[in-house]
Amino acid sequence: MSLNIDLHILQTVPPSNLNRDDSGSPKSAQYGGVRRARVSSQAWKRATRADFSRRLSPNQVGVRTLRAAELLAERVVTLDPSVDPAAAAKLAEQALGAVGLKLESRRKKKDAPDEEDPGVKTEYLVFFSNEQLDRLAELALTGEKTARAYKAIMQGNNGVDLALFGRMVANDADLNVDASVQVAHALSTHAVDNEFDFYTAVDDKAPKEETGAGMMGTIEFNSSVLYRYATLNVDLLAAQLGEPSDAVRAVAEFVRSFIESMPTGKQNTFANGTLPDAVVVSARSDRGVSYVGAFERPVRAGRDGGYLQNSAAALTDYAKDVVAQYASPAGETWVLRVGSATDSLDALGGTRVTLPQLTDAVCGAVSEHLGLA
Fold first, then answer.
1. What is the phi/psi pair of residue 82, to 5°?
2. Does residue 69 sit in the same domain as residue 50?
């Protein structure tokens, strides 16, 4: 019997542009017949990974990059300063080739045609744990040539973020790492219309007789109550990390970072750094279940304005109905909430907790499931 940790979050976001499309507009999606604000799953996963750096050491996390050859060469020189940088680059390229990754030349900048050889890059972004990079560099220094030895390093030694979010290598499925976390695109619980901020900027050194703006433009933005959802498979995570105790720590870090993180799009412009108004976390023994259906009918503002109170009520009613109709109880449930607008969530019957209490409680459930308690 597997264990899944479901996270359901309601979060109010003021005027902002968290995640832009190719035209600079806030991303959106059609759902329930109306246009919704949307923040892509990739944007929030990236923000979650960035938040890991606050509490995890570099050897517990990794890097997604085109520049693996450069990173490997740097590690080779660090391990053995007697190795010439050009020789280190050659060792790095041989190691990545043995892994099965294709390399191509990095182009010189058009405005700097005389710069030194910029080196090579992988064909596409590849996710490495820092431990994998360290061990590849160590192996390269031994003069090892066999592919099996290099691939063995890539098939283990997963960091926390690699085990959580996975890795896909298009030309070699043996290097794939199945993600133990699924993250939904965040959607507004209600219909949203984008707005435009017309701005002007003053030239501080302009002559007094010049009264016009130094520049002007527009920034598109919106505001919303977002429903965010993620589910984590504890058993898969433990298998990817190899040690049950490491999985317990990884679950705690993911829960905390997913809750507290925020994508950085236009953050300096809008200072939209809110924390969630409500977090419902459930331990399920069947599979992850999203409650986004609570908002297929767009929430309307309450009598006193605002969408949060009606969003919380809709989430509560839908979750209770799913449990009743499918006879599929969510198991142990914890509720972290702020303010009276989220009072309705108490009807879910979950334990009311603070964030530190939540991470402790989830860790306890995971430890018990993995036989550590």
1. -75, -15
2. no
What are the tokens at 305? 């304005």
269 and 139 fall within a common domain: no
Q: Which candidate, 159, 138, 175, 189, places its Cα nearest to that of 341?
A: 189
HEC string of 227-294? Answer: EEEEEEEHHHHHHHHCCHHHHHHHHHHHHHHHHHCCCCCCHHHHCCCCCCCEEEEEEECCCCCCCHHH
Question: Per mean pLDDT, which range of 107-116, 120-129, 169-178 is the poorest?
Answer: 107-116
pTM (2 d.p.): 0.92
- Pair (128, 230) in one structural domain: no
* Within a domain: 128: yes
Q: Are residues 136 and 109 part of one domain? A: yes
Same-domain check for residues 244 and 139: no
- Please state, in angstroms and as integers, the Cα–Cα distance from residue 119 to each residue in 18, 71, 84, following that order: 34, 11, 15
Distances (CA, A) of 137 to 70, 119, 318: 11, 17, 52
Q: Do 154 and 189 sit in the same domain of this protein?
A: no
- Listed residue (336, 319, 337) closest to 328, CA to CA: 319
Whether residues 133 and 237 fall in one domain: no
pLDDT at 69 over 70: yes
Q: What is the pLDDT of residues 208-243, one digit of tens each?
A: 878 778 888 889 999 999 999 999 999 999 999 999
Taken in order 54, 57, 62, 66, the sign of the CA dihedral is positive
Mean of per-residue pLDDT scores for the chain: 93
Give me the number of domains the chain comprises: 2
| Full residue range of the structural domain in which residue 143 is found | 64-158
Please check whether residue 210 lies inside any domain of the structure. Answer: no
pLDDT tier, 256 (very low <50, low <70, confident <90, very high otherwise): very high
pLDDT for the residue numbered 107: 67
Angle CA 234–274–222, to nearest 5: 110
Count the Cβ atoms, other than its own, within 10 Å of residue 16: 24
Neighbouring CB atoms inside 10 A of 285's CB total 13
Do residue 150 and residue 194 come from a single domain? no
Give the CA angle between residues 16, 20, 22 to the nearest 5°: 155
- The answer to the question of residue 209 being in a domain is no
